[in-house]
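General statements about sequence and structure are easier to judge against a single worked case. For one protein, we set the task of working out the structure tokens from the amino acid sequence alone. The sequence in question and its structure tokens are set out directly beneath this paragraph.
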Amino acid sequence: MMATIEVTETSPNSFSVTVHGTQTTSHQVNVKPDYAQPLLDASQTVAELVSASFQFLLDRESNTSILRSFDLSVIERYFPEYPQAIQRYLK
């Protein structure tokens, strides 16, 4: 089953993410602007980066395995290829 990802900015640099998969999960993600900026080009938003990051994670683990609350930079600690790979997920 293909999961759907809903991203809502709840405050500056903070996003609520709901993943509808076999089970529905909710996540809180913080994004430091200085971390996000090098990963984005001028036409992309931080919300798109968060959504793409969840797609990246879902290709590697189930939504029930994704941390409930984390800073986006933590992904790199678990998946060192993240900064390079995320470009393929950003459309």
